[in-house]
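Tutorial handout. Part one gives the primary structure; part two gives the three-dimensional structure as tokens.
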Amino acid sequence: MTRPSLLNFLLMMLAIMGPLGAQDSRPRLDRTRVEALVRQLDDPDFQRREQAFAELEALGSTLQPLLRELAPTASVEARLRIETLLERMTTEETADTIELDEQRFDLDLRQASVGDALDLLARKAGFDFLPDPDLDRRRMVDLELKAVTAFEALDRLARQLERSWTQDYGNGRIRFYRSPAEVSPRIVYRGPFRLSLDSVTRNASLTFGGETNRNCQIAGRLEIEPGAPVLGLFVQPRVTVAIDDLEKDLVPEAQVESFQLAGPRRSFHFALRVEPPGPEARKLARLEICLRIALPRRYDPLELDIAAGHAESGRTKIDYRSEQKLGPNRRVELFIERALPTVNPERPVELADERIEVLTAEGEVLRPMGPVQRLKSGTGEILRFDLPGQEGRLRSIRLASLLEVELCEFRFAFEDLDLP
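Part two.
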């Protein structure tokens, strides 16, 4: 055989043997069957809807492109269930997906008014801006941004406005304020986070024995993008690398951590202490800060038929409690019993999170207005939330309760930080 003939022979054998050697336990993807199952997702019979959902879920993540293709032409309820399927398939990936899927976008704000710029950032990045009577919304800005994160765009706009900004602790709303021009924190953007160092200080004090006590402290702030599914984080962040310009290792021996829930809070201040650099050191040559966060890994989806009043899975039980009018809206109460995941083995903290969508008899999808209230009650919780409007009879409630949590680390690196 000549060489080309031998190569062709080997390729032919591989083509023949490939399917025989493949061991794929997932069901084969049959487009006609998938389309039929998608139509069945809004079947009047609840059990048939659940059966179609389970069969589609069993096909696994290879189904994602076809589901995205079929979603726009599906009915309202089928589209809702398709979104739930896609979310579950996404949460089965590694926790680093949150970084790989970070928001990056282009913004053309050349000769745009401040009002238009804020409206565009609100639509693109999800920011909610507090009204600022001191800010002229008719003022013109000139920015053209390429592949920036939400916080990069916000920082660039703030600099043009000669302002700084902060996030409200309670609800994450953005407030601009005037600040001295010399304030310039060191900033690193990573995934949906913005970590800024506001100050690096060192001082020396005399003890009662006449010895000199030296220390070095770093203060900063962590911001979390709106909509990023951060359940909580370990604070203080950990210093993993700290080296001064004389190559002295400054990593502290012990660092205290506690876990804090995030919820609507999107901003956290921190103060870190490192070993004091020598008197001759002028810079921190490199500083690495490690942030440990809790992300949702999997949710347990369950549909409650309001007429039945009760639904349960292996991990979750729901009872429909009540619905009442509340001004122009209405309030719904559920009683839920569920096994909650925990973090921080030393001081276990239970994490509760859920995604709720309500379907009316007319096929309209309603989502809770504002945060869901959770009230402890016996062996479970009462979930209380408000829905917009009062028209239409409620048909069913889809509730996906947090089932599994992933602890993920993000590292932020700074170089050449001046020492006072």
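Part three, for discussion. Confidence is low (pLDDT under 50) at residues 1-27, 91-100. The helical segments are 3-21, 31-40, 46-58, 64-70, 76-91, 97-100, 114-125, 150-160.
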